[in-house]
Each structure stands twice: as structure tokens, then as C-alpha cells.
Specification:
The protein is α+β, with helices and mostly antiparallel strands. It contains 21 helices and 17 strands. Pfam families: TTL (PF03133).
Length: 588
């Protein structure tokens, strides 16, 4: 790793792609991967793709011949559905379930109701205005409680404020309200939070990796517990970089070799000092790993549903990946608490610290996702082989469930072997040998998803209907129709005879008239020519007997669309045979 970093070109935080679309550049497209950067503003992404991986940068937003698409926006299901198996994109559809503050709070609160102790890693949350009544009950006379109010879809600290007065909150506005976390862990008297980068590389099964370096963002004013006089001091209570960098007290990092200086530092530098002071950093990492896994478990069914709907045949589970920024608060006991999740963390590189960490992060991510020409050629070759088989046989090769499971396991083993050898600064936290303990969270989240989408409504209706019916009713519903097997385009003369298709026991007779029953039984002895009609004859003529009789004729087993009904209707011979059939049934 150190030798590789020494050979890499230096990134100073800025990048300008001077190459244009020349004939020489176009000739390289066949032997070089293409990275579409039309929808990203970050120079570090372009630098890594161009200088480190030697890819061709593409700036046309409507182009489709790319291999890697990096976007700063959310990915819609339609985009993933149109992608080729060898293409990759840096977002998952449906990630709003974590990225938006209101969706994150809703999903985690549902899990907390079922698993109270296991999901206590985030502040108590209210979604306004829906839960305004419950939130209003928190304001009790004699108890000064501080709440932090956040717009449900904002970022970089915009619109956030602290309050102890209910009148400061408009009951009709959409906010996410949380209990303010008191007694933070302080370094040099300052409050701080962690920006931990977590990579989601698959949804079913989930594949989760945690980068071992990140950012520690400090407030710029010494911390004082909230009171009525300092609630408006955002540079004391909030650690957002976008807010604190405007403070004159903010100290920028100017030396990549000194990542323990300034109001933004590296996680490795800060954790190193804490470990020297005797704190258990390994336990802190393990506690954060638990938070990351449980958070993803709460939305795994949503993400998996979106992915399978768009790419049902991608058994490698590798066309999407996403770097998420988890913001972690540490209390006075060095216990981590989740604040929020960012699905588009900032890759701005305005300091040497940012340039170093984010360049290495993106490089290790793209390498871990196995974006290379050899993997692309293998996928294309496999796809050509399946297409050739389809041309030769005239049928699309459909895999059985067992074959699909086998392929998924083979692809998973191949990914495990590659990724374990190319982790870089990542650590794999899921799946591991003890991953079964998280199954109960995913199963409960799946039941919530089914209830919300109505997936299990029809299943429950059928089950309840079956349980409410008597055995006699169930037996009456079952009509014993023997369906003769046949192939499409079978000549009429080769079709089975009617008496072999429509047997006497398949006709239910409601009544006690023995003569009618005897007439029905005569059907088995009728010798008829093959009939070119798809419907049983309609009863006409004598339809009255001594007692009310109802003949329930089952549907024919032959599909009407296999026959030309107009030609049958004009066939006088068939009409004559139909009339003879009716007269035979009701002859005295």
C-alpha cells in the first residue's frame, strides 16, 4: 500500500481535464474503461478516474457506452433498469429511506418499538407535524428540556435551531425534532462529531465495509451546556463544517502530514491520541459497526426490492455501490450515537487533509468494486454465449431456482475472494460468521415492508377464506376436470375426444331426478367425432324437469384462441352435430 501511494500522482485539491475527444482518444475507448462524470462537481473523482485508473472521462449526460457512472444525485430505478450487466453506478435506488431525516427517523423508530434495547443508538425523534401532539407533551412546566429542530430534507446545517419553547415550532411545518444530546465527549473543551465513511456494496445479501479513516469536525466555541442565553450559538452546539468554517476562530489544516491540528482532523489522528490516553478504541469501533449494520437492516427490504425489480438477473449483486457518510456523536462515556446518514457526502477538497483522505477513499472504493477491463470482458463473453444458445434453441434459457441459488453462491464466493485481497483501508463488517444474529432485524423489517405495500393482504385473504369454508364447500369448489395435455398448433384431428375431456363426474347435478342423472351418465357412452369448438354446447329446448336442476359445466381445457371461431360458426356440419347432441341429452 505504501509503495503504491508513493507511485501515485499528487493531488492538490484541484483537477482540470485538458484532454479532448481526439481520434487517438477515441481509439483507446475499445481498450480503456469509460467513466461518465457529467453529473459530478468534485475534482477528486475526476482525478482518481483519470490519473490513477487511466480511464477516459466522459462528459455527455445522455451517453450510454460508459462503464462507471459517478453522480452527485440520487439514482432512479429507471436508470438502473437500463444498465448493462458490466456497468456500475455509485448509488442505490431507494436510498432515500436512510438519507432523508424523516424517513430515517421513521424507520428506526419502528424498529425501536420492537427491539427497544437493540435500537437505542439514536436520539428520541418526532416527525412533525404528524407527531406534534406527542412532541407537545414533552414540554412540562418545571423541566427545561432542550430540543434540536431540523428541516426534514436539508443538509450542511441549514435551517437547524435549538429551542426550549414550543411556540418556536410551527405546528404545520415539516420538521424532525430530536432531544438535544447533553454531556458530550470533549476534546480541548470543544464538542465534535465523526464523519465515518461506510460502503454499501450489495443489498441481497448486504455487503458492508467501513473505511478506517474519516473526518473529526469540531465546534469553534468552547462547549457550555445549553441555556436560554446560548441556544442561538450554533458554533458551540453544532459541529457542521459549513457553519463553523465561517467563524473567525476556525483553524484550517494546511499540512497533510499533521492531521491532528485544526478544527477538522482525521479519525486516525484523533483515535490515536485517545488510545494513548487509555481509551478503548477497539470497543468504540465495534460499537459503531453494530450501529451501521442495524441501520442497514432497517431498510434492507426496501433497497433489495428496488434492486431486484430493476436487475432481477444480476446474481453477482454488484452493479450498484454507495459511499454513505454516517455522522456519529460521542457522549461522555465514549459511546457512539447516530445523528444522521448522508447519501451524498461532500467530496470537497479545500484542505490537504480532505484531499488526502477523500482521494484514498474513492481509490479504494473503485478498486474494491472490481471495475476493470478483464471483468467487463468476462461478463460480455458470458452474455454472448447465452445469446448464442438462445438463437440455436429458439428459447430463452430459464434457470431453475436451484440453478439461480447456485449461481448466486458462486458469484458471492468469487467476490469474497477478490474483495478480501483488495480491501485497502476498508474493513468488512457484514456478512461475517456471526451475521445470523441480525436476521431477526431484517425479518421484522420485511414484515413492516409487506404490511406497508400490501404484499401480504391477498395471501391473508385466501388463507382466511379457506379457513372459513366447510369441507363440503371446499369439495364443491373443486371441479374434477381432467385436462388432456396438448401442444400448441396441434391439428384438430389429433385432439382428444370430448368424452375423454368432459367426464360424467365433472358435472354437478343439483336435484334428485334419477332420470336426469341417467341421461348425464350416458355421456360416457357417446361416440363422437372430434369437435372444433372451445365451448360446451348451450342447452336449448327442453330445460324443465320435475325438480329444479342445474347443470354446472366446467370450462373447457382447450384455449379458444387456438381455433378460428368464425369458421366453426359457419360450419353447417358442426352445427348439425351440436343439435344431435342436445336432442340426445333431453330425449325421453
Amino acid at each position: 500500500m505504501k509503495q503504491q501511494q508513493l507511485k501515485e500522482p499528487h493531488f492538490n485539491g484541484e483537477f482540470e481535464d485538458s484532454d479532448s475527444e481526439t481520434e487517438d482518444n477515441n481509439s483507446k475507448k475499445k481498450t480503456t474503461l469509460i467513466m461518465n462524470v457529467s453529473d459530478t462537481q468534485y475534482d477528486v473523482v475526476k482525478f482518481v478516474g483519470k490519473k490513477l485508473f487511466k480511464w477516459i472521462l466522459q462528459y455527455e449526460p445522455d451517453a450510454t457506452n460508459w462503464d462507471m457512472f459517478w453522480t452527485d444525485a440520487a439514482v432512479q430505478p429507471e436508470t438502473l433498469g437500463k444498465m448493462q450487466p458490466y456497468q456500475k453506478i455509485n448509488h442505490f435506488p431507494g436510498m432515500y429511506s436512510l438519507a432523508r431525516k424523516n424517513h430515517l427517523g421513521r424507520n428506526l423508530m419502528k424498529m425501536r418499538k420492537q427491539f427497544t434495547l437493540e435500537y437505542k443508538f439514536f436520539p428520541q425523534t418526532w416527525l412533525l407535524p404528524a407527531e406534534y401532539g406527542d412532541f407537545k407533551s414533552q414540554f412540562v412546566k418545571g423541566k427545561a428540556r432542550t430540543f434540536i429542530i431540523k428541516p426534514e430534507a436539508s443538509c450542511q446545517g441549514r435551517g437547524i435551531f435549538l429551542t426550549r419553547n414550543l411556540n418556536d415550532v410551527n405546528p404545520n411545518d415539516h420538521y424532525v425534532a430530536q432531544r438535544y444530546l447533553l454531556r458530550p465527549f470533549l476534546i480541548e473543551g470543544l464538542k465534535f462529531d465523526l464523519r465515518v465513511y461506510v460502503l454499501l456494496a450489495g443489498t441481497d445479501p448486504m455487503r458492508i465495509y467501513v473505511y478506517q479513516d474519516g473526518l473529526v469536525r469540531f465546534a469553534t466555541e468552547p462547549y457550555v451546556p445549553p441555556n436560554t442565553s446560548n441556544l442561538d450559538d450554533m458554533c458551540m452546539h453544532l459541529t457542521n463544517y459549513a457553519i463553523n468554517k465561517e467563524n473567525p476562530n476556525f483553524v484550517f489544516n494546511k499540512d497533510a502530514s499533521r492531521m491532528d491540528i485544526g478544527h477538522k482532523r482525521s479519525i486516525k489522528a484523533v483515535f490515536g491520541k485517545l488510545e494513548e490516553e487509555g481509551h478503548d478504541i477497539k470497543k468504540l469501533w465495534q460499537d459503531m459497526y453494530e450501529i451501521f449494520i442495524k441501520t442497514f437492516c432497517a431498510v434492507q427490504p426496501i433497497l433489495s426490492h428496488h434492486y431486484r425489480s430493476c436487475q432481477p438477473d444480476n446474481y453477482a449483486n454488484n452493479m450498484c455501490f454507495e459511499i454513505l457518510g454516517f455522522d456519529i456523536f460521542l457522549n461522555h462515556k465514549l459511546q457512539p450515537i447516530l445523528l444522521e446518514v448522508n447519501h451524498t457526502p461532500s467530496f470537497t477538497t479545500d484542505t490537504p487533509l480532505d484531499s488526502m483522505i477523500k482521494k484514498n477513499l474513492i481509490r479504494d472504493t473503485l478498486k474494491l468494486m472490481n471495475v476493470n477491463l478483464k471483468a467487463k470482458e468476462q461478463i460480455i463473453a458470458s452474455r454472448k454465449e447465452s445469446l448464442q444458445q438462445r438463437v440455436l434453441t429458439g428459447k430463452k434459457v430459464k434457470l431453475t431456482m436451484e440453478e439461480k441459488v447456485t449461481q448466486m453462491k458462486q458469484q458471492e464466493q468469487q467476490r469474497n475472494g477478490y474483495e478480501n485481497a483488495h480491501l485497502g483501508d476498508y474493513v468488512k463488517i457484514y456478512p461475517l460468521e456471526d451475521s445470523q444474529k441480525y436476521d431477526k432485524y431484517i425479518e421484522f423489517a420485511s414484515s413492516l415492508q409487506d404490511s406497508w405495500t400490501g404484499t401480504n393482504i391477498k395471501r391473508n385473504q385466501k388463507k382466511n377464506m379457506k379457513e372459513s369454508q366447510t369441507p363440503q364447500q371446499q369439495q364443491q369448489i373443486k371441479i374434477n376436470v381432467v385436462r388432456a395435455p396438448f401442444k400448441p398448433n396441434t391439428p384438430v384431428k389429433n385432439l382428444p375426444k370430448l368424452q375423454n375431456i368432459l367426464r360424467p363426474e365433472s358435472i354437478i347435478v343439483h336435484g334428485e331426478d334419477e332420470q336426469v342423472s341417467a341421461k348425464v351418465n350416458k355421456l360416457s357412452n357417446i361416440k363422437m367425432q372430434p369437435r372444433q369448438q372451445s365451448e360446451p354446447p348451450v342447452l336449448r329446448g327442453k330445460q324443465t324437469v320435475k325438480k329444479q336442476i342445474q347443470l354446472v359445466i366446467p370450462k373447457p381445457c382447450l384455449q379458444p384462441k387456438l381455433f378460428d371461431m368464425e369458421q366453426i360458426g359457419q360450419d353447417k356440419y358442426n352445427n348439425k352435430r351440436q343439435q344431435q347432441y342436445q336432442e340426445m341429452m333431453f330425449a325421453k
